[in-house]
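User: Can you predict the 3D structure for this chain?
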Amino acid sequence: MMKKIAKPLFIILVLSMLLFACTPGVDQSQTEEILRTIADQVVKLTIQADEVEMLKQALTACPDACPTCEAPPTTTPCPETTPCPVCATEVPTPTPTATSTVQARTASISGRLIYPSEYIPPQRVVAYEVKTGYYYWVRTALGNSSYTISNLPAGTYKVVSYAQIEGVTGLMAGYTPYAACNFTCAENHTLIEFELKEGEHKTGIDPIDWYAPPGVGWPDEPQG
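Assistant: Here is the predicted structure, written as structure tokens:
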């Protein structure tokens, strides 16, 4: 656009020179000053027109470095050292991973309770799941001769019963081979480990062996 303006000005400059040269009574020095001023303006406009043309070419040649995002408009050439604007990216949603299903607690056990005395004290019967370390229990009242522990998950268990006598601790009976044979076989005070399937109910789990010697290695009564 500036070049189109510069050409008419150049024509005006030539016509002005002829006009002032032919006008009588005009001082020659004034004429020359006016012509120099017009010439300077034409030169400046020509230079500005060239600069604008170069800028337009630079903008046209500026590569689109980020085709996936829209860069803000600019009126200056795209410099090579300017980093490309960061495109907004969608944060990926993590794929949910499979979680272990809580094991159904549908099994149960039951058995007899005794005590080597004329009465049966309250007891706390504890079933230990030997693979996980979890334990489950039930408390019985004075004189109860049986127990049932329900809502057990499938697993491998051993059972110990703890006498609940005020002022007395450490009295315990276990479900052992000696208890399983109702004291009619050789003494074996090893706690029996038995499998319990989901939904299964096992009877005859009798923790009645009160005769294990000290240091047999049975678990102490849990505090929780």
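Residues 2-61 form one domain. Residues 1-6, 62-72, 74-79, 86-101 have pLDDT under 50 and may be disordered.
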